[in-house]
Amino acid sequence: MNFEELVKNRYAVKLFDINKKVSENDLDYVIEMARLAPTAFGLQPFRIKVVSERAVKEKLQEASWNQPQITSCSHLLVFCADNAVMERIEHLGKIMDELGLPADKKATYMDFMKGAFAEKSPEEISFWASKQAYLVADHVMLAAVEKGFNSCPMEGFDSKAYGEILNLPKNLLASIIIPIGYPADEARLKMRFSKEDILV
Question: 3-state DSSP: the chain helix, strand, coil percent, rounded to 5?
Fold first, then answer.
C-alpha cells in the first residue's frame, strides 16, 4: 500500500478478533517504526509499555470505561510521557559520543537542550512529553495497517490507575493508549471536513 492507502485504511477499531494475535515479528516492526518517529530535539521522551496478558488487560479495562478494545486486542500499547527530560538529554549525549559527534557540537547542542527546559515546570514538561508521544503514535497506527491489522487511538482511560496497575515509575505518565490487532468489526464511513475547512 502507498501512503494514501495506509491513511485511508486506518480506522478506529471498536472490537478486535480475540483469537487472532499479532506476530512477534510484526509487533517488533511496529515498535521499530515508533523508534524511528520524529520528536522534538530527537529526545524521544516517551516509553511504550506492551501489554498482552489477559489478566492485566482486564484490570486496565476497568480503568478504561470498560471499553471492549482493551481486552479484545492482541496487544495494548501504552504510550507514556517520560518526564525525566534531563536524564533523556544525558542519554542522548552518550549516543552522540557513540556516533562520533564532535565534542564542540555536542556541547553546544547539550547546552541548548538543557536551556530549553531549565525554566519549565514539571507540568509543562509533562505536557510537552505527551505531545511527543502523540507524534509517535501516528507512526504506530500506520505501521499496523501496513502489516495487515489495525488499531484504535484512545484517551478514554484513567492515567493514574494505569500507572498503579502497571507499576510505572513516577517519571512515566500514561498519555495515550493504542490497542492493536485484527478487527472483528467493519470500518465505518470516514467523515472528514473539506480542505477548505482545515485551511486558514
Answer: 50, 15, 35
Per-residue pLDDT of 72-93, as tens digits, reads 999 999 999 999 999 999 999 9
Q: Give the span between the Cα atoms of 66 and 62, in whole angstroms.
A: 5
Q: List the CATH number of the domain containing 168.
A: 3.40.109.10
Residue 9 counted as domain residue: yes
Name the domain count of the chain: 1
As to burial, measured by CB atoms within 10 angstroms (0-12 exposed, 13-18 middle, 19+ buried), residue 44 is buried
Q: In this structure, is residue 155 part of a structural domain?
A: yes
What would the pLDDT profile of 3-40 be if each residue is shown by its tens digit?
999 999 999 999 999 999 999 999 999 999 999 999 99
Give the three cell numbers for residue 133: 508521544
Structural domain containing residue 29: 3-83+124-198
d(C-alpha 183, C-alpha 180), whole Å? 9
